[in-house]
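Me: Here is a favour to ask of a fellow structure person. Could you put it straight underneath, so I can go through it closely?

Assistant:
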Amino acid sequence: MPPTLALALCIVFVLFLLRLERKQAPDVSRAIWIPTIWMLVIASKPLGVWFQVRNADPEQGSPLDLVFQAALILAAMVILIRRDIDWPGAMRENAWLMALVIFMLISVLWSDLPLISFKRWGKEFLAILMAFVVLSEPSPRRALESILTRTTYVLIPFSPVLIKYFPDYGRLYTRWSGEEMWIGVANHKNSLACLCIISAIFLIWSLVRRWQGNNPAVWRFQTPAEILLLALTFWLLGGPGGKIFYSATSVYALSAGLLVFGGYYLAKRNKIQISAGTLTALVTVIIVFGIVSIFTSGSKLGFFASAVGRDATLTGRTQVWASLLPVVMSRPLAGGGFGVFWTPGRQDLYQISGAHSGYLDVLLGLGFIGILLVSAFLLSSCRKAHRELSHDFDWGILWICYIIMSVVHNMGESSIDSFTNYLTAIVLFFTVSSSLTFRTKSDPVGN
C-alpha cells in the first residue's frame, strides 16, 4: 500500500472514532480540547520534531514548542478566569501538589542552570493549569474520560502507520548500540511502551464496563474497533522482534495494573472491603522498594529482570545508578535544582538518555525533600482514589490502576520527576479533577 494512502485511511479512521467519542460525550465542552491537545503532544513528539524545526535548542526546545506552550497557558488562563474557580478550596484539596510545585520553583534558586530550570518549571505550571481546566468542567470525570479516549483513538492508530510507512518518524536507532527501536508517535521505545500500557488498561476498562452495561456503544462496530485498538497496543508493545518483554518495565507495570484491576473486581464480587490503609501501604512499599533498589545497585530488581530474560544489570541501569549515587549524596537534601541534570553533555558522559528510575531522577533534581513531597502527593492521590470507590467504583478502579502502574513503572523508567510525562499527567488530572470543594460561580463556557 502506498504510504500516502495508508496515512489517508488512518486519518479517516481516527476522525470517525473521534466522531463516535463526541456522540458519547455531548456534554463535554469544546474547551476540553485545550488539555486534550496538550496531552496529545506530551504523549508523542514535540512539535519541533514533527515539523523538523532545525534551529531547536536541545536544552530549551524549538521556538515552535515555546510559542505553542505560551498559547496554551494563555488559553487555559482565559478559560479559568471566565469560569471563576474557587481557588482556595481547590488548593486546600491539593495541598501536597501545591507544596511540590512550589518546591520545584524554589529549587531554581540553587540550580546550576537557573534559567533553564525556570523554563522547565513553566512546563509544570502549564500541566497544573491543564488539570484545573478539567476540574472546571461541569463533569470533570466525564471530561477526563474524553481526554483519555481521544488520546487513545488518535495516537495508537498512527503509530503502526508511522512505523511501517514513515520510518523516519516511526523508527529510531540508539546512539550507542545502533539497536532499531519502534517509536511510532513517541520519542523513544520506552515512551511508546508507556503509551501502550496506558491505552491498554483504559481500553480494557472501557470494554469491561460496556460488557457490564455501563458504557453503551454509540455504534454497533465501536466495540470491535476498540478491540482492534487493543490488539494494536499489544502488537506495538512487542517491538520489532515480536518480543513480549520488549520493554520489560512497562510490561511489569501493566501486569501490576491488571492484577489490581482484577483483584478489586473480584473483591467486590465477594463483598470484600479493601481498606484505604491497605492501598496506601501497598503504594508505600512499592515506592520504598524502588528507592532502596537504587542504593543497593538494583540487586532487589535483578530477580525480576532475569525472569524475563534480561541481564541482572537491568540493561546497564545498575552501573549508571551506582555512578550517580555520589552525585545524589553531594546534594542529598534538596538536590541540584529541578529539571537540569540531564543535559546533552551528561547524557554523552553516562551514555544514557536518563537515569531510568523516576525515584533517582527526583533525588538528583529535588533531593530527599523532593522524594518525600512526590510520595506524599501520590499517597494523597491514593486516598482520594479510594474515596472515589464509594461514589463511582469503576472510575476509582481505573484511577488506582494508574497509580499502581506509575509507582511500578518508575522503578525502571522515569516519569514521576515531571508532570509533563504522560503517565504522571494522568495521575495529576485524576487527582485534581476529584476536588470536592470545587464550585463554579457562573455557567461553564465553551459549550
Notes: The mean pLDDT is 88. Residues 358-389 form the longest helix (32 residues). DSSP finds 19 helices and two strands in the chain. The radius of gyration is 21 Å.
